Structures are given as structure tokens and as C-alpha cells.
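Q: How would the C-alpha cells look for this protein?
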Amino acid sequence: SGMLLYGMSLMYGFAGDTSFAGIAQALQSADVNQFGLGVALVMILTGLAFKVSAVPFHMWTPDVYEGAPMPVTAFMASAPKAAAMALLMRVLCQPLMEMNEHWIQIIAMLSVITMAVGSILAIAQTNIKRLLAYSSIGNVGFMLVGLVAGTHAGIEAMLVYMTIYLAMTLGIFALMLSLRRKNIFIDKIDDIVGLSQIAPGAAFMMLILMFSLAGVPPLAGFFAKFYVFSAAVQAGYTWLAVTGVIFSVIAAYYCLRIVKTMYFDKGKGR
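A: Here is the predicted structure in C-alpha cell form.
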């Protein structure tokens, strides 16, 4: 937060205005200090990347998700993340659009490493909340693909992805909370072994949500990824779309692992 506020202060100092319209107008001036604005841009992006859990500012997310009560984790995985992504989109695409040749490179790099870390490290998790934390990190990387496009279609794709992601995330947490009414407390992935036998309805809904999270057609998660990758290709970032597809395939592993545990693994007397 300190980094973000200091970046905003520098932006005001060099642009001479705090309004979005005033900053955008100041950036078009030949007299503006480009180096100072570049420093302010990096600080603002650092603060916002921390809030959306983009790598390498993601370190807090798995620990906080794991340590918080399930309802708090569900809230943190949805509302604050959506608000921070919306703020990032508005700041970059309105007052700082004039600097897009600078921030697009930064966002593209953040997108790639965020997709990579989130998708790969989720595979190694044994705690369900830590797995969902790394899943949320990976999905932030996919959302940033739409922002890199820097076009109207890219912003729309990012908003569609964010909406679908929120629905999937809240659905997963709602299912886990509802299972507590049957005295099924899910903490580790092993806790859902044989879930299809004792709660077939919940297991089927979890299967649908996990398939959607993995991007399996014709579920909503597939269209979310399709829209952001299409926007990237249309904007000339085909390499980023291809990278996203590769990490989508990797991310599908941990989603299918949940389904396998529910339906095919046996143990704990189930």
C-alpha cells in the first residue's frame, strides 16, 4: 500500500493533477518528465500487482488463504480480487493509456510468470485452500492476457473472464461450506476421497466446476479463456495466447486430480 501511494504521489507531482482526465492530458505534453512518470508507473503497478496476487508479488496469498476461515477465504478470493483487477484496468486504460507501450511490456511479463507459477505450483499442493490460492494466482495471469491486448475486445474479454472466475470460485467454496452440514470438513485434498459415494450431488457439482475451471468445453471456463486468447491474437500477441494455452493444459491437471480423488480414490472407510 505504501508503494502504491508513493507511486500515486509521484504521478501527481509530475503530472500536476489527480483526475484521470488531467493525468491523461499531462502525459500528452512534451514537457512532462518521462523518467519520473516511468518510476511512478512501476510503483503503481507494483502496488496493484500485489493486490491482485500477480507473481512475484503473490507470496502472501497461499498462506492467508490457508490460515483464514473458509468464509473469509471465499470473500478474499472474490470481492477484493475483482475490485483490484477493475482498478488496475481503469488506471491503465484511462489515465495511463498514453504510456501503454511501457506498461504493456510489464503486464505481459507479469501475465506469463503468473500463469506459470500459479499453474505449476498448484499441482504440488495437498491443502485444498492452498490449491485454490495458486489456482487464483494462475487465473489472474489469464485475466492479464486480455489487459495486454489493450483493446476494447481485450477489456471485454477480461471482464467476462473475471465474472466467470468469480462464479466458479464462489461455487467451489459454497459447496465446501455446504458439506459441513453433513459433517464433512474439507481441509486437505485427501478429505474428498470417495465424496461421490456419500454426497453424489455435491461431487457432481464439484466435477462441473472443476471441469469449467480447467477450461473444458462447452463449459463457461472454456469460453472465458477463449475470449482472452482471441483478443490477444487479434492484437498481435499470438505468442502470449499460445503460452496461455500451454499453461491452461498444465492447470487442467490439478482440476482433474480433484475429480479423480472424488470418484476413483478409495480410503477413509468410504
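The mean pLDDT is 87.

DSSP finds 13 helices and no strands in the chain.

Upvote if useful.
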